[in-house]
Amino acid sequence: MDFGKTFRRWASYRKTVRELSALDDRELNDLGITRGDIQPLAREHAERI
């Protein structure tokens, strides 16, 4: 297992969760997502790295 790749994925996941969580509900709605979508979306994004 590549530790560097794992770390980059984890860091990407955390950054995405942090940035989306900082948005208010109206901003999230404008993007077409809900608070419940944040973690799955972040996980999906991180897996692409």
Automatic annotation (TrEMBL):
<dbReference type="InterPro" id="IPR009506">
    <property type="entry name" value="YjiS-like"/>
</dbReference>
<feature type="domain" description="YjiS-like">
    <location>
        <begin position="6"/>
        <end position="39"/>
    </location>
</feature>
<protein>
    <submittedName>
        <fullName>Uncharacterized protein DUF1127</fullName>
    </submittedName>
</protein>
<dbReference type="Pfam" id="PF06568">
    <property type="entry name" value="YjiS-like"/>
</dbReference>
